[in-house]
Amino acid sequence: MSAPNKSYDPVEVEALKPEEIERMRDEALAAFAAADSLDALHEAKVAHTGPASPLALANREIGALPPHAKADAGKRVGMARGAVNKALAARQSELEAERDARVLVEEAVDVTLPHDRVPAGARHPLTTFMERVADVFVSMGYEIAEGPEVEAEWFNFDALNFTPDHPARQMQDTFFVEGPEGDRGESGVVLRTHTSPVQARSLLDREPPVYIVCPGRVYRTDELDATHTPVFHQIELLAVDEGLTMADLKGTMDHMVQSLFGADMKTRLRPNYFPFTEPSAEMDMLCYVCKGESVGNPDRPCRTCSSEGWIELGGCGMVNPRVLVACGVDPEKYSGFAFGFGIERMLMFRHNVEDMRDMVEGDVRFTRPFGMEI
Ligand code: DAH
């Protein structure tokens, strides 16, 4: 009988010696304790519990032992690995708790700090003001109407009783749209010079009574300067019903200026001429700054109305029966009033804007003081 194979004794296998296993365990525990971050702990984990770690290699040696030695060595390696895994898990949760606490401190948001975010955009004061004016009429039951900006000459002029030789039709005022042959002025299409063509469109679209308000963009061949821009905005108003008179026009306008400028405001009418209204008038409103007190009073000059006491608003009048007829409305049964004015001008005197170019150049230093209305 041969002697016991000494080299199979676990005590003889270097990696399985009890003190060797204890050393491996203690090294692992020390490495975990020394790991000061989750990344460092991960490295220690790979080194001390991974497939190439000393304890894993020792574990592999067990298979080669004789049966009687396997249990003993397996128990010692198993206990060491158990202790290592336990220490690893404990350190892992310790470091995670530290990280969570740190994140709470480092990533805390001080909501009281002044902010420097990119300011939110807002709509242009021209748009918001135009809608505010339109709202005054909507609250009286008027309907918003729209028409095209590239308009048939017939709607822009003919339907509104402009004679073929009316000066407003001339090239110096009107943008004519070229026809397919590049024929200027013969295509019958223009960029609308006012919002009044929407009067004709609305009358053709609807049965009276008609109460519409049309805010929109219009075009004229003006050079851009402090008081002119080739693209600007108007608001048009049209009421057609039975028995409407100039008193209704006046009352409606008074209501508008009171809503926009204050309860003590009023309007006045001065005779004027427009082909599509008869009689026609120019509408002025009381200067909302000096309320007329600057007139003849050199001690109290008013910049807003140039001490005139009144500010010109726009044109108005009773709808010319010829327009009603052109749009299929019986002038024996119905009458109407209309009004149209420029938004830029009104925004200018309402907010003391001295140069119209500020309104179109898109510089936020101009628009910002109007607020962030959207
Ligand atoms: N359309 C005219 C213009 O642009 C303004 C105007 C005058 C409109 C009289 C009207 C009106 O509705 O009745 O100069």
Question: What can you see in these coordinates?
Answer:
A 7-stranded mixed β-sheet has the order 1-4-5-9-8-7-6, sandwiched between helices. The termini are far apart. 30% of the residues are buried. The chain is elongated, with a radius of gyration of 44 Å. Helix 1 (18-34) packs antiparallel against helix 2 (38-49), helix 1 packs parallel to helix 4 (67-106) and helix 2 packs antiparallel against helix 4. The chain is an alpha+beta fold and 374 residues long. The chain has 12 helices and 9 strands. A hairpin with a 2-residue loop joins strand 6 (267-274) and strand 7. The protein is 39% helix and 17% strand.
Helix fraction bin: 25-40%
Q: Number of helical runs?
A: 12
Shape: elongated
Spatial strand sequence of the major β-sheet:
1-4-5-9-8-7-6
Number of strands: 9
Distance between the termini: 102 Å
Bound molecules: 3,4-dihydroxyphenylalanine
From N to C, what is the helix and strand string? HHHHHEEHEHEEHEEEHEHHH
How much β-strand is present in the residues? 15-25%
Biggest sheet, open or closed, and with what strands and sense?
7 strands, mixed
Radius of gyration: 44 Å
| Structural category | alpha+beta
Pick out the low-confidence regions: 1-5
How much is the average pLDDT? 90
Briefly, what is this?
The protein has helices at residues 18-34, 38-49, 54-62, 67-106, 125-138, 153-156, 197-205, 246-261, 321-326, 343-351, 357-360, 364-367, and strands at 143-144, 150-152, 189-191, 210-219, 231-241, 267-274, 277-286, 310-319, 335-342. With 374 residues, it is an alpha+beta fold.
